[in-house]
Amino acid sequence: MHVPTLPSGIHPIGNYRVQPDPRSGVYAIQVQCAGQWHPVCAARPNEEGLLLALLQSPFPTVQHGWLVAARSPLP
Known about the structure:
The strands form 2 sheets. The protein has a 3-stranded antiparallel β-sheet, with no helix packed on it. A 3-stranded antiparallel β-sheet has the order 2-3-4, with no helix packed on it. With about 80 residues, it is mainly β. The two termini are about 20 Å apart. It has one helix at about 50-55, and strands spanning about 10, 15-20, 25-35, 35-40, 60-65, 65-70.
């Protein structure tokens, strides 16, 4: 899962939101890092379930543009 609008580095995710698109039926998922909302791009269509599972991990983080599920806080 890619977060293309964040600069390179490690960014903890503060929150996330899911918004359905009534026209296409696809869910738009965004993550909040440093007070800003950023769209998440799935690698393949219909991966919203996997993305939500990653976001519900104890310490979801964006590392160098990619969503990472961690069991402990990253440095």
